[in-house]
Amino acid sequence: MVKNKVTILGAGESGTGAALLAKAKGYDVFVSDAGTIKDSYKAELIAAAIVFEEGVHSQEEILSSSIIIKSPGIPEKADIIQKCKAKQIEIIDEIEFASSFTQASIIAITGTNGKTTTTLLTYHLLKEAGFSVGLAGNVGHSLAKQVIEDSFDYYVVEMSSFQLDGTKSFKPFVGVLLNITPDHLDRYNYDLSNYVDSKFGLIKNMNETDHFIFYSDDELVINGLAESSFSGVKHPVSITEKAENYLSGTEMNIGNDIVVSQAETTLRGPHNAINMMSAIRAAMIVGVSEQAIRKGLKSFKNAPHRLEYVATINEVDFINDSKATNVDSVKYALDSFSEQLIWIAGGVDKGNDYNLIMERVNAKVKALICLGKDNTKLREAFHDQIIDLLETVNIKDAVRSALQYAEAHDVVLLSPACASFDLFNNYIDRGDQFKKAVLELKEEFESKKIEQ
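The structure assignment produced for this chain is given below.
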């Protein structure tokens, strides 16, 4: 084992950032990626004179390291990880490594659903209020890359359970846990309690001066908190009862007698009320004023593919929610609309239990378009409830058929409940193709109107 030698496994955004930070701090750095490294990341590594390899893991080189910084996407059961563990080499995540080199206050946000929206909104509220703040984790640039200069007073960091698994001393000033629903259980031996423990890694090092914002209507969250040793300040968020931060109708009641109507914001649905109340509370904790928060809520634009309005055709709204890759996300989407829905769903099923949304589907969905190579589970779940059910593998056909089923003031909702890899590269590709198909159809309709 070579003292002061760091090997980075995986040369994506986080891995490249970790390599650059390690080099800047004087480590002997080696980067290994079993896949292909993007040209842009190669250029950064070459410019920093960092040795790297791709398409292979050279075990002798890797196993001589004193620290391994692992990409979150590499599972613990991977052969190279098991060999590192056998040699008792320390294995950490990029965020764990980066956080040890900054004195900035970190707002860390996790949850099965909603974390990207909440992270982006929290960052937006701080930035618009004039705070010195960086955006990192699953969104924005690598935290490690930003810590090289370390010019921010705050970092807002979106964290997955995989990233939390790689932390040891990581301690945010504000931790946000939005919800816990079964997801990625293949990485946790199909044991939900392991996944819950992973999420609560967020607060394991926090002390009495730190703040924890959490969704108090979630039984798994409450039970996990009861079993934790957290001693800091608790900020519950609820949509069913009066907690410190709660939703009453469409009004968000935040501590300090602040009331914000959801109509004054750019986000809709009860799930986004949870996200907004969490972001508002985080912003208030670090000192953002009520006036600045209200202004920021009005100017916020969410990331694409999350209940994203695309266009209106013939008085029918088309909404892109391609990021909804599990049933719980679809439940939130269905709850966001009072209109009748034409629902486009399907793809690679992740073990979905459609009974969780059966009541909502019965009440709101007038037609279901199954977009996938194997729609058996969707079809069997809903064929008795929905008379109009169509199967297709073509996104353009899905969009055109949806418009045919719709009447004025209906909503066409792409909210797949499934992964995208049967027909698309990823959820982004699926959402982009949906938007393209909708806009092409809109242009066609408008051309026909002009001709008439």
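Interim note for the steering committee: The radius of gyration is 23 Å. The mean pLDDT is 93.
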